[in-house]
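As described in the Methods, two query proteins were run sequentially through the folding procedure within a single session, without resetting any intermediate state between them. The first query and its resulting structure tokens are shown here.
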Amino acid sequence: MKALMFGWEFPPHILGGLGTASYGLTRGMAMQPDMDITFCIPKPWGDEDQSFLKIVGMCNVPIVWRDVQMDYVRERVGKYMDPQLYYNFRDHIYDDFTYRHVNDLGCIEFSGRYPENLLEEINNYSIVAGVVARTEYFDIIHAHDWLTYPAGIHAKNVTGKPLVIHVHATDYDRSRGNVNPDVYAIEKNGMDNADHIITVSNLTRQTVIEKYHQDPAKVTTVHNAVEPLSPEILAIPDRRGVQDKIITFLGRITMQKGPEYFVEAAAKVLAKAPYARFVMAGSGDMMDQMIRLAAARNISDRFHFTGFMKGKQVYEVLKSSDVYVMPSVSEPFGISPLEAMQCGVPSIISKQSGCAEILDYAVKVDYWDIEALADAMYSIITYPAMHKFLKEEGKKEVDNIKWEYAGQKVRQIYDKVLSI
């Protein structure tokens, strides 16, 4: 079984949960001996793990024919892919794109991020996908999130192969309902053209059915999972046990993630437990607003903003934390509480998150209920028995939530789609 996947992020260069989920799912699927995955991203950096899949950087796929020598191609793209693949792609350029801005190899350059001209990059990505789809051999197309739906549709139209799209989030989640019509149109078109839709939670599945008017029979939930901790992460020393109790928020500081509820609840906890400290790890467009809110509540001396963190830094913060909090307003899934629980950190999550559907040993509150959130924080740092119970049972629970199982569910969906 060969799958052509379109994605936007891949570790170690990630900007959010999409990259983490893409890595975990593909690794889980690769445990099936006959599974062969080609994973496309806008811009590889050369240090991605390709031991279980093949990565194609769309910035290295020509759309304009250039007469270039093998030695030069090897020098330019050899770090990222087999240079011969460049020539294979060049043989499948399907239209005259000389009017487009390309480099000396005839390739479009991508930022590999989420730039101001994101819609233009999405369109460019779909043009390049036409070359890739005409070159690669595969049985099924799998497009991750709205950014790659146009690429998936193009690949389907070119080859006639079935398209599965993976909804990691919708614009209803990202915007608190203030939906961008351009993004909605891309999402809706992707869903309408898909042969099957995978959602990361039942919460997201309901949004897809109700807001995007999709047939329920066409939409299947496959919950996300968590990677086992590496020896490097396990070796990070546990820094808990000091007198101050650390309560951590880790994620994008945007309205979707509910950071203001965390700050307001922190002020209530500090009124009763002045020995608590609060960490807001991450970056986002509400960061300055949160700094001002902490100052207005007169808790700045107990509140720490770390900025964006990734990889090992995330686990260093978690292993210094007594409680992890995810008060998201609308969270399609939310992998970070699972990562916290792996580290033995009791977690509080909003009932409005997809991971709440599969976690029994996390405390669940409504995101807007600041009193309940503050009570949960206070209880966990005040009652050692409660902390110990959540720590031990939570770790046991997440150790059994594996990407391998998610990968098996995706494979069943592939088999079903291909049998129709």
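Immediately afterward, the second query was submitted; its sequence and tokens are:
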Amino acid sequence: MKYCKNCGAENNDNNIFCFNCRCESFNPEQPIPMGSNANMTVPPAAPAALPVYMMSAKPKPPLGIFDLLTILGFVCAIVGMFSISLILHPIGVLTSVIGFVQGKRFRGLALAGTVISVVGGIIYLVISLYNNGLLPEWITYGALH
């Protein structure tokens, strides 16, 4: 057993820090001199407060409806980009904007969902106009022709 030079607490041999005062002043060869009264024992160390890395975090509140709308808007935006869906882009914009304004947790995700949905909607609109021949020729062929 080791005895701390700082507080006198008894520690295991494999301890790096004192269990009581968290200092590093162990001397395994010589216990703390007890003065004239050699029969006096060192009281057991009071359990110290847990270090910060061992403390449990505060539980997060459950997801609210606006947080779920934010997640739904982002998912609709991503799925709409791959399927070029006429329905998913407006749903993505609507739910992401509501989540951004009312939500508390995922504002960045709501902003990303809004931007992706708007860009996807514009792409879908341009493709639809091009397929139906409603775009002017100078836009479809540009300056290269």
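The mean pLDDT is 78. We note this only descriptively and draw no conclusion about the first query from it.
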